[in-house]
């Protein structure tokens, strides 16, 4: 009888797949109304001499059944864990997803280079407000009320007599108001004009330069700017100073640089305005015009960048096309 029960049990256990099925089998054999339990109950009806033999036989069967159920429980549990682990398997050797790295914008790179060069010449770096007022942007720079630069078509006017600075020259006044000579500064930053074509954008960058001391001459200005071009372009580049007019410098000039356009034609490109500080400007900041002279310049960074990097349309800088930006 024992063999029969155990064989049946083993047969039952053969293809169980989960704990639930196992528990059903457990109660079929040793549950309250299970086969083995019924055998146990029947013992009490047997004659005394058989009770003992039958009792130990049924006990052995029960033990055996419990052992088998137990070992099968362990098997199923470990199978279940293994299955779970397999489903959740992570391949730690797979390469990760990389964040793509940004790079410094070409205009910022060029600005940094220019600042480095002038720092090397002993210039101090200063920065000032992009929202200016009429006094600093025009009046104190000797730009009269009827000057075309004041035209609405060139200047972005704001409320309360404010405007977006059209050049970095207001920084000349701000610096001189607060300091006495000698002055030797550059001031990089954004400037704004209502203008847009292949060489103009409504916002662009300038670096203003101002040097004031005793005995400063146009020769000093020329030599600094020529030296700058040499250091910036890293080779002898052709420059030309062309007479020009700015109300805040006298005499005034523009510096042109030779470059090649798309069709490989040699052209001159204006990159900066400059000149000897007009004594009228010194009067606004109460500098002694009999003692001090100075020079000033304002260079267009986008222009310099176009020549140095070989870019033919200024608008590329501000379209944020990654294919363009990633080249630098
Ligand atoms: N501010 C002038 C411009 O934006 C440039 C300039 C600066 C000219 C300093 C002379 C001296 O065109």
Order the strands across the largest sheet as they lie in space.
1-4-5-9-8-7-6
The figure for the number of domains is 2
Taking all Cα atoms into account, the compactness measure Rg is: 45 Å
The ordered H/E elements are HHHHHEEHEHEEHEEEHEHH
Which class of secondary structure composition applies to the elements?
alpha+beta
Backbone shape: rod-shaped
What is the highest CATH level, the class of the largest domain?
Alpha Beta
- Proportion in β-strands: 15-25%
User: Whole-number average pLDDT?
Assistant: 91
The tally of helices reads: 11
**Distance linking N and C termini:** 89 Å
Bound molecules: phenylalanine
Give the % helix. Answer: 40-55%
Largest sheet: 7 strands, mixed
Q: What is the CATH topology descriptor of the largest domain?
A: BirA Bifunctional Protein, domain 2
Q: What is the CATH architecture annotation of the largest domain?
A: 2-Layer Sandwich
Total beta strands: 9
- Which homologous superfamily in CATH is the superfamily of the largest domain? Bira Bifunctional Protein, Domain 2
The low-pLDDT segments are: none
């Amino acid at each position: 009888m024992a063999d029969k029960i155990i064989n049946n049990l083993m047969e039952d256990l053969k293809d169980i797949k989960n704990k639930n099925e196992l528990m059903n089998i457990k109660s079929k054999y040793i549950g309250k109304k299970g086969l083995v339990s019924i055998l146990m109950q029947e013992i009490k009806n047997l004659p005394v001499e058989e009770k003992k033999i039958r009792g130990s036989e049924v006990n052995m069967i029960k033990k055996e059944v419990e052992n088998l159920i137990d070992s099968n429980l362990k098997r199923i549990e470990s199978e279940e864990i293994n299955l779970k682990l397999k489903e959740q398997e992570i391949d730690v050797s797979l390469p990760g997803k990389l964040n793509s790295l940004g790079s410094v914008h070409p205009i910022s790179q060029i600005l940094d280079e220019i600042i480095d060069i002038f720092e090397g010449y002993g210039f101090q770096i200063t920065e000032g407000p992009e929202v200016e007022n009429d006094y600093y942007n025009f009046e104190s720079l000797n730009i009269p009320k009827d000057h075309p630069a004041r035209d609405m078509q060139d200047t972005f006017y704001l409320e309360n007599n404010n405007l977006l600075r059209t050049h970095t020259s207001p920084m000349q006044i701000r610096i001189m108001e607060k300091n006495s000579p000698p002055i030797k500064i550059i001031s990089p930053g954004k400037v704004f004009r209502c203008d847009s074509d292949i060489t103009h954008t409504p916002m662009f960058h300038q670096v203003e330069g101002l040097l004031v001391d005793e005995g400063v001459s146009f020769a000093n200005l020329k030599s600094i700017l020529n030296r700058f071009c040499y250091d910036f372009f890293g080779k002898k580049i052709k420059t030309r100073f062309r007479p020009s007019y700015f109300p805040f410098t006298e005499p005034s000039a523009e510096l042109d640089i030779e470059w090649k356009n798309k069709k490989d034609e040699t052209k001159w490109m204006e990159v900066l305005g400059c000149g000897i500080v007009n004594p009228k400007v010194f009067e606004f900041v109460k500098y002694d015009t009999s003692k001090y002279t100075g020079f000033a310049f304002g260079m267009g960074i986008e222009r310099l960048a176009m020549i140095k990097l070989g870019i033919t349309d200024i608008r590329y800088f501000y379209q944020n096309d990654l294919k363009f930006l990633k080249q630098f």
